Amino acid sequence: MRTIVRMTRIEHAKVLVSGAGIAGMALAWWLTEHGAEVTVVERAAAVRDGGYKVDIRGAALTVIERMGLLERVRAARTGVRTGSVVDATGKRVASMDADTFGGRVHDDAELLRGDLATMLHELTADRVTYRFGDAIAALGPEVVFESGHRAAYDLVVGADGLRSRTRALAFGDTGVHDLDHYIAICSVPNHLGLDREELTYVGAGRTALVYSTAGQADAKAMFLFADPGGERPRGTEAQRAFLTAAYAGEGWEVPKLLDAVAGAGDLYFDTISQVRLDGWSRGRVALVGDAAYCASPASGQGTSLALVGAYVLAGELAAAGLDEGPRRYEERMRPFVAANQHLGPANIKRMVLRSRRQVRMSMRMLAVVNRLPGKERLLAKVVEPINKAANAITL
């Protein structure tokens, strides 16, 4: 039997990162900066481009700047100018600038997830080994891949998202806590002729929005809705049927958007959930990003958590080694994660209103605020918690 020597220093250590998402590729870059030999395994055939818009806020901007990507990120911003809430007739009840609408302040940047992923892949392509079209099948003295390939690593890091296979293998089927809501996102024709604008329609227990970004001919539709009960649908056709049933009878442009969903090839559908674990490492397996501490899309902080988590994990591994580094990473990140996870349950209650009465009251209040001078300053106070959470760590 071959003897496997375990290294304790990150320099020259062989590290396997599962998942070529934002957390995984950012971690791979920082680990190579500290001298590790990194392999990234990704089930998809290539880095996923396109996707929905994401925000980079607070401390995550510092990470991006230290990676030398700040100017590229700024250049790739979506350019969305305004956000409006509409009623069932399409009337704009309230409108505001897009940064206020999206909870952004100062230099916070909004860009498409795929654009950020492409930047990270380009940054790492010449220093990281990528295994696309493969995945971890088993963990042990050697990692066994679904392709049949086997290899030994000094550290394995799961950066494979909410439904992390790495987490399941190392920690068991645990950690995912549903917030009793669903999310669906896909590309749709821009039949409303939106020009860098976002429109949001709010019904009882279900919200629908559509937006266009700079340089995109089509639009993106997003659906956020309360769990109507029953089992979580599996497979694209079942998810489309589930979504259509959930929005049956809804007004505004919802029927047309649902028709477009039927032909969309990029539907993302899942529960709105958080990952809560007592620890983020076991032996020589660690977790980062959504796999460790998904805050849910409702938090607006998933991308920022991924970037900051990758930076902190790599830094603590470099400073304290493979045995002690994961513990120090968790100590540094726990308060930051807690602050950002707190946003999810609170935000979803504001994003999806439970009753028609709540919808009516909200529309009336927005209409009044929309007519007030300095409305942006008033509405900006609503987003203070997210700005505070985004800066709740010192790098």
Automatic annotation (TrEMBL):
Keyword Transport: no
Segments forming domain FAD-binding: 13-168, 273-322
Keywords: Membrane, Transmembrane, Transmembrane helix
SUPFAM superfamilies associated with the record: FAD/NAD(P)-binding domain
The keyword Cell wall biogenesis/degradation belongs to this UniProt entry's keyword annotation: no
Transmembrane regions listed in the UniProt entry: 12-31
One Gene Ontology molecular-function label: FAD binding
Record protein name field: 2-polyprenyl-6-methoxyphenol hydroxylase-like FAD-dependent oxidoreductase
Organism: Asanoa ferruginea
